[in-house]
Amino acid sequence: MKSSEMSIRQSTTDADEHILSAQVSHHPESTVKLGILGCSGIVPRAVLDPAPYVDGLEIVGVANRTLSKAESLAEHYGIATIYNSLDELLADPQLDAVYIGLSNELHATWIRKALSAGKHVLVEKPLCLYPEELPMMGAAAQHYGLQLIEGIMVAHHPWQHTLRELIQSGEYGDLIRTVTQLTIPAKDNHQDNYRSHPEQGGGCFWDLGCYWLQFLQQVIGIQHGEFDGQSLFDGPNGCDWTFEAQARLAHGVTAEAIFSFEKPYSSRHIVYLEHATITINDFFRCNLGFYKLKLKIALLENGQETGEVRYHTFEPMNYYVNQLRFFRDTVHHPSNHHSLDESVERIHLLSHIHATAKSKSVIS
């Protein structure tokens, strides 16, 4: 189908030619052609700003239910094609893949539609809101032989692998517990945001809890863990504005976390071992650009700090650049099939922990 037959409008600007040239600076036969489904606030940061740093990926077009938002993004970023509807984007045979940046409650529906249309999918977290939606998505991806990847931005940075190696090496003794703080103050316009609406996956735990669970999956492992959660659910429309969660993992290791939209900003993991405390501060910073991260290793003797501190510093990286490269590589090499198992495990746990906290709130 030609673009003229689809009533697709073209939008390019001279000011953004440098972005377009960066996007197409590779061989066409190796290019993953990506369409953007939905123009939520995360799209520029997660896709449009990092895309020029990713060879073999071309942003072909954009669609949104409110056409003016698609037009604005296309004009600002020099995106060539604006589709008149979401379905029209999926019908375009030139697209290899889509990024889904729609509201959380729409993820499952449009994942199914995208896979049925023959497109690989990178979807903004969470993968979906209801565990009962998971089998359909997994079955569709397998049936059509396509990749479905949940966008957990921190998953593609080496700090997690390095931290896991430090723990497993035994150099600093056995792991005892971890503490996570992920608190991001809500903006003044939060009433108009999905975070304030329970039916859209609102509240801080559905928004931030995935990063804690993914950290535990990668660094420690959570098989057969016992999880619990608490919240007053006193945020807008009964959303959880502060949420506490705990886990008891294998070998007696405990993990605790606090999430909040009302406390001062913090993004920190602290890992307590017998002979050291390892801290990674401000681990969210790499979602804003290319930044360094470092692991701080404070040595202990008889449970007290000795004053000796070691650092493991990582070169500046951007989470979303890494994520797009991972997506591109997974599409290019389908034999290295990306497993949905960890995403499925997270959705089940998010739902379980949130429901547990909600039941306590109702009883009290």
Folded structure, characterized:
The structure is a single chain. The strands form two sheets. This protein has an eight-stranded mixed beta sheet with strand order 9-10-11-8-12-13-14-15. The chain has a seven-stranded mixed beta sheet with strand order 1-4-3-2-5-6-7, with helices on both faces. It folds into two domains: 3-151, 3-Layer(aba) Sandwich (Rossmann fold), CATH 3.40.50; 157-322 and 347-363, Dihydrodipicolinate Reductase, domain 2 (2-Layer Sandwich), CATH 3.30.360. It has ten helices and 15 strands. 42% of the residues are buried. Residues 1-29 have low confidence and may be disordered. Helix content is 31%, strand content 27%. It is of the alpha/beta class. It is globular and about 65 Å long.
Attribute tags:
364 residues; alpha/beta; Rossmann fold; Dihydrodipicolinate Reductase, domain 2; 27% strand; disordered N terminus
Strands, helices and their partners?
Blueprint: E1 9-10, H1 17-23, E2 32-37, H2 43-48, E3 57-63, H3 67-77, E4 81-82, H4 86-90, E5 97-100, H5 107-116, E6 120-124, H6 134-144, E7 148-151, H7 159-169, E8 175-183, H8 204-219, E9 226-230, E10 242-248, E11 254-260, E12 266-273, E13 276-281, E14 291-301, E15 304-317, H9 319-332, H10 341-363
Parallel strand pairs: 2-3, 2-5, 3-4, 5-6, 6-7, 8-11
Antiparallel strand pairs: 1-4, 8-12, 9-10, 10-11, 12-13, 13-14, 14-15
Helix pairs in contact: 5-6, 8-10
GO molecular function: nucleotide binding; oxidoreductase activity
Keywords: Oxidoreductase
Domain Gfo/Idh/MocA-like oxidoreductase N-terminal: 33-150
